[in-house]
Design brief:
single chain; three-stranded parallel β-sheet; two-stranded antiparallel sheet; 4 helices; disordered N terminus
């Protein structure tokens, strides 16, 4: 199931079930591709939620969400980046302290708490941009 947090359904969704989708994640977030991975010219996303450990379906190694977060920041992404991990609380705290990451939560965390934190972070970001 999907949780849309005051989002436009046409621009919101879940990708990453295939290696091609994982490799296109940064382009989708930055608006260079749409959710169907077709070339696009769209505004960047407001929020990117990324699993920390992503296994690829083509036999390649896994991809770390933190690496995708850092790549997004290097490419100028100014939105909220949230990492989800199934790891222990210490790892969640370590991820949350990384400068590329705004929020980090355990994968099985309270969805309402995560949604509220994402909205709060997006609101703070919007206020900072307008001031």
């Amino acid at each position: 199931s999907r949780l849309f947090v005051q989002a436009a359904p046409s621009r919101s969704g879940s990708i990453g079930s295939t290696a091609e989708e994982v490799r296109s994640f940064v382009d989708v977030v930055m608006g260079r591709k749409d959710l169907s991975l077709e070339p696009a010219t769209l505004p960047p996303a407001d929020i990117a939620v990324i699993d920390q450990n992503i296994d690829l379906d083509d036999g390649d190694d896994s991809v770390r969400g933190l690496d995708l977060a850092q790549q997004l920041r290097q490419e100028g992404f100014e939105g909220v980046i949230c990492i989800l991990t199934g790891a222990h609380r210490d790892e969640v705290e370590r991820l949350g302290q990384n400068p590329a990451v705004d929020l980090a939560f355990e994968t099985n965390g309270d969805l309402q708490k995560i949604a509220d934190a994402l909205l709060d972070a997006r609101t703070r970001l919007a206020k900072n941009r307008s001031s």
